[in-house]
């Protein structure tokens, strides 16, 4: 019990110290629940959003969670930032639809990469395959490789799940594996509308031994790690996705995530002050404590 109390006090002291840096860097500006920017973003960035909010306001994580909204697709979040529902977002790659929406509305966004994540591929723990090459992944999602025996597994059809078009993980897929019109047209029953839905489909599907899916590394390993009791991460070109391999750029499918505000946000606005702090060394330190792979 004494150890738990000591750790809690240590964490509190760190939060107080980091919060003090915000005021120190911005002429004594102090965030309150009333002036705190409306924050949203991609689901995999929710722990970071909670940590930032709890730190700068000096509140607990449960209260911080109630003050921010990490729901909808990544494209939704960019559009809600443009429309003013949010003042600041923590989000993954911007989709072409989101870029088009910004252009349509005449709004410019300012975004800074704050960390690196990865697109990872998962299959059933019962599946004997441990590794796929980039070429094999491309051929599977073109519909040219259809059986696990073609990639070193048993004689079973591959069930290649896809995400919905406006999701962050699908945007990452399209950027990192740009198949364009060659991407197979997935039937509706294997096109999944949420990250948790995809994980559950791969882990719990009746013929889960056959399923293949993709998600972002942080979400699976830090927020839904229990799914790794029935599914597993695949290596790509012999490289397993880990914090180290992602940070060094060794794992092939890596990409940044961002803190984003409207470009016209005033220099003294709460969202601009929070944006600058998240990009600072103190912000990076906090992200590292949440086990994100941080940009150096």
Would you give an account of this structure?
Strands 1, 2, 3, 5, 8, 9, 11 and 12 form an 8-stranded mixed beta sheet that branches. A two-stranded parallel sheet has the order 4-10. Strands 6-7 form a two-stranded parallel ribbon. Residues 1-15 have low confidence and may be disordered. It contains 12 helices and 12 strands. It folds into 2 domains: 2-115 and 258-294, D-Maltodextrin-Binding Protein, domain 2 (3-Layer(aba) Sandwich); 117-247, D-Maltodextrin-Binding Protein, domain 2. The chain has helices at residues 2-25, 46-57, 61-67, 74-83, 96-105, 134-142, 168-176, 195-204, 217-223, 243-247, 270-279, 281-289; strands at residues 39-41, 88-91, 109-124, 131-132, 159-160, 162-163, 191-192, 211-216, 231-233, 235-236, 254-262, 293-294. α1 (2-25) packs across α2. The chain is of the alpha/beta class and 296 residues long. The two termini are 36 Å apart.
In short:
The protein has 296 residues and is an alpha/beta fold.
- The structural class is alpha/beta
Largest sheet: 8 strands, mixed
Q: Which CATH class of the largest domain applies here?
A: Alpha Beta
Q: End-to-end span in angstroms?
A: 36 Å
**What is the CATH H-level superfamily of the largest domain?**
Periplasmic binding protein-like II
Q: Give the overall average pLDDT.
A: 86
Number of β-strand runs: 12
Q: In the residues, how many domains can be counted? A: 2
| Overall helicity | 40-55%
Q: Any idea of the CATH topology of the largest domain?
A: D-Maltodextrin-Binding Protein, domain 2
How many individual helices?
12
Q: Give Rg in angstroms.
A: 20 Å
Q: What's the overall geometry?
A: elongated
| CATH architecture heading of the largest domain | 3-Layer(aba) Sandwich
Strand content: 15-25%
Uncertain runs with pLDDT below 50, 5 residues or more?
Answer: 1-15
Order of helices and strands: HEHHHEHEEHEEHEHEHEEHEHHE
């Amino acid at each position: 019990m004494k150890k738990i109390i000591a750790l809690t006090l240590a964490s509190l002291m760190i939060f107080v110290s980091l919060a003090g840096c915000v005021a120190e860097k911005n002429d004594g500006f102090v965030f309150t629940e009333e002036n705190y920017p409306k924050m949203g973003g991609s689901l995999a960035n929710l722990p970071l959003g909670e940590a930032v909010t709890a730190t700068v306001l000096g509140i607990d994580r449960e209260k911080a969670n109630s003050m921010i909204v990490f729901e909808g697709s990544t494209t939704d979040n960019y559009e809600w930032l443009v429309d003013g529902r949010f003042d600041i977002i923590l989000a993954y790659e911007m989709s072409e639809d989101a870029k088009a929406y910004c252009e349509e509305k005449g709004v410019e966004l300012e975004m800074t990469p704050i960390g690196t994540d990865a697109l990872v591929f998962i299959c059933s723990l019962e599946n004997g395959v441990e590794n796929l090459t980039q070429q094999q992944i491309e051929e599977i999602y073109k519909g040219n490789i259809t059986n696990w025996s073609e990639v070193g597994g048993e004689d079973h059809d591959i069930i290649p799940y896809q995400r919905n078009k406006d999701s962050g993980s699908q945007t990452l897929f399209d950027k990192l594996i740009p198949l364009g019109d060659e991407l197979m047209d997935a039937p509706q029953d294997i096109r999944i509308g949420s990250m948790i839905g995809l994980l559950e489909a791969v882990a719990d599907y009746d013929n889960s031994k056959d399923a293949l899916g993709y998600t972002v590394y942080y979400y699976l390993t830090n927020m839904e790690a229990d799914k790794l009791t029935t599914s597993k991460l695949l290596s790509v070109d012999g490289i397993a996705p880990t914090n180290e391999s992602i940070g060094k750029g060794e794992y092939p499918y890596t990409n940044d995530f961002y803190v984003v505000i409207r470009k016209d946000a005033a220099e003294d606005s709460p969202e601009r002050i929070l944006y600058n702090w998240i990009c600072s060394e103190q912000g990076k330190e906090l992200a590292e404590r949440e086990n994100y792979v941080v940009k150096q």
